[in-house]
Design a protein that fits this description.
It contains 7 helices and 10 strands. The protein has 228 residues and is α/β, with parallel strands linked by helices. It has a single domain, classed as P-loop containing nucleotide triphosphate hydrolases (Rossmann fold). Helix 3 crosses helix 4, helix 3 packs parallel to helix 5 and helix 5 runs parallel beside helix 6. The chain has a 6-stranded mixed β-sheet. Strands 2-1-4-5 form a 4-stranded antiparallel β-sheet, with helices on one face. Strand 7, helix 6 and strand 8 form a beta-alpha-beta unit.
Length: 228
């Protein structure tokens, strides 16, 4: 008999409020709550301008709310610990890849480990992990290619491997297939979801793509500054 995986709460957002004040005050998020458990795939959709990317940046500690509380692995996120939490527990995938074009695929995957000041020399645990991730993404033969030589789908697979380099508890994805054709997008969706499930990683994805939304365990609509 298979043992049931124990679920734990990995992210709690309570009464999140975000406003921008220039040139005039605009309220984007208000009294927003979200709870995410380990291994849960969450999709957030909504119209352009509703604040989806802003919300993802706040949840991923890349931005701060004006009011409200964010807890990662039951630890309150503060100005003083957000970098540590981000470096050791969170991974990020972006629509525009955000790869360093003059670096190889392997060097890009290793970048989070470097930022976390982990050893990345040959035969180090991080180096071996990065190679293993590229192999799982079907890109081992591209490990030493400059990323500017890769296709869009290959670049996004490199960015997925990079997001997983530090073995994060939560992966954040902002329109991960927005720059890809439909067929390549479908491959990326399946790869991302299946990997998150196999590794029991929580995945929070912002997307307009209904086919990706349909793969999520929990689906939210960001509307009128709150999640429905």
């Amino acid at each position: 008999m298979n043992k049931k995986v124990q679920k734990r709460q990995v992210l709690q957002a309570k009464k999140i409020h975000k406003s921008f004040y220039h040139p005039t005050k605009i309220s984007i998020l208000d009294e927003l709550d979200l709870n995410v458990t380990s291994g849960e795939v969450v999709a957030i959709k909504g119209r352009s301008g509703e604040g989806k990317s802003t919300l993802l940046q706040i949840l991923g500690t890349l931005d701060s709310p004006c009011k409200g509380e964010l807890r990662i692995l039951d630890e309150p996120v503060t100005f003083f610990n957000k970098s540590k939490i981000r470096n050791h527990h969170l991974g990020f995938i972006f629509q525009s890849f955000h790869l360093l074009d003059d670096y190889t695929a392997l060097e890009n995957v290793l970048m989070p480990a470097k930022i976390a000041r982990e050893a990345t020399s040959k035969n180090s645990p991080a180096f071996k992990r990065a190679l293993a991730l590229l192999e799982q993404m079907g890109l081992l033969d591209r490990a030493h290619f400059s990323t500017k030589l890769l296709s869009g789908g290959e670049k996004q697979r490199v960015s997925i491997a990079r997001a997983l380099c530090n073995d994060p508890d939560i992966i954040f994805a902002d329109e991960p297939s927005g720059n890809l054709d439909k067929e390549t997008a479908s491959i990326i969706h399946d790869l991302l979801i299946s990997f998150a499930k196999k590794q029991n990683k929580s995945l929070i994805v912002v997307t307009h793509d209904e086919s990706l939304v349909a793969l999520a365990d929990t689906q939210y609509l960001l509307q009128n500054k709150a999640l429905v």
